[in-house]
Amino acid sequence: MLKCQNLTKIYKMGDNETVALENVSFEIKKGSFVAIMGPSGSGKSTLMHILGALDNPTHGKYLLDNKDVSKLSEDQLAEIRKKQIGFVFQAFNLLPRTTVLRNVMLPLIYEETPKEKRREMAEVALKAVKLDPKRWDHLSNQISGGQMQRVAIARALVNDPSLILADEPTGNLDIKTGEFILQTFKRLNKEFGHTIVLITHEEEVADWADRKIVIRDGKIIEDVKKKVK
Question: Average pLDDT, stretch 135-161?
């Protein structure tokens, strides 16, 4: 479902060039749980922006569901971000004075989904991340960080996207809460078949995935799948 072919990204400032990615190639199949890991400045954030249709490579191709994302217009890219990619961020990015339920319904409002259907779809997503229904009518700034991240995951799920892209999703959480969030991703992958790409700089976070792609200085230096026991 996802294919990168010789992705290269070069940033230019005057006469200076910075190569953020160099000939990066890999494929991710539907239903996979993959971690892309690397230190700060490795190129993983640049790669994440390309995978999320937020930026285009300087050279190479990125195909999502057999569409060459590199050749799409801004309107087409916006449509892909809206319908095919669910984003989960380190900072949650929830509306603070809005209820949990309405935060999850937000992408459906933009899609002009009928009101009753919006609520039904949001409830399904919240149940999938096992958030207590007693919290659904709370404002998002009245719940814990772990609960906020589960709401963010539910919002990413609500449109049933092809790809869930999680950028450092445990970065603002304590170890125990972070593990619960990673367990949630694992369950969504194993039980519901969601394709998940997790961006991280932490080895222990990457270890939750079934495959680990390590990037350094803009190049893939390791691509390892877990052995099936």
Answer: 94
Task: Give the range of the structural domain holding residue 217, as residue numbers without chain letter.
Answer: 33-56+74-225
**Number of domains observed in the structure of the chain:** 1
Q: Are 101 and 108 in contact (CB under 8 A)?
A: no
Question: Would you give the distance in Å from CA 148 to the centre of its chain?
Answer: 16
Helix axes 145-157, 175-192, angle to 10 degrees: 20
* 1 domain-assigned: no
- Residue 6 is assigned to a structural domain of this protein: no
pLDDT computed for residue 229 by the predictor: 44
User: What is the Cα–Cα distance from 180 to 109, expressed in whole angstroms?
Assistant: 29
Half-sphere exposure of 23 (CA within 13 A, CB side): 1
Residue range 82-101: mean pLDDT, rounded: 92
32 φ/ψ angles, rounded to the nearest 5 degrees: -85, 160
CATH number where 185 lies? 3.40.50.300
Residue 61, burial from CB neighbour count under 10 angstroms (0-12, 13-18, 19+): middle
Rounded to an integer, what distance in angstroms lies between the CA atom of residue 146 and that of residue 181? 7
Cα–Cα distance between 52 and 5 in angstroms, integer?
16
* CA distances, 52 to each of 9, 86, 166, 214 (Å): 15, 9, 10, 18
Give the predicted TM-score (pTM) of the model: 0.91
- What is the distance between the alpha carbons of residues 226 and 216, in angstroms, rounded to a whole number? 20
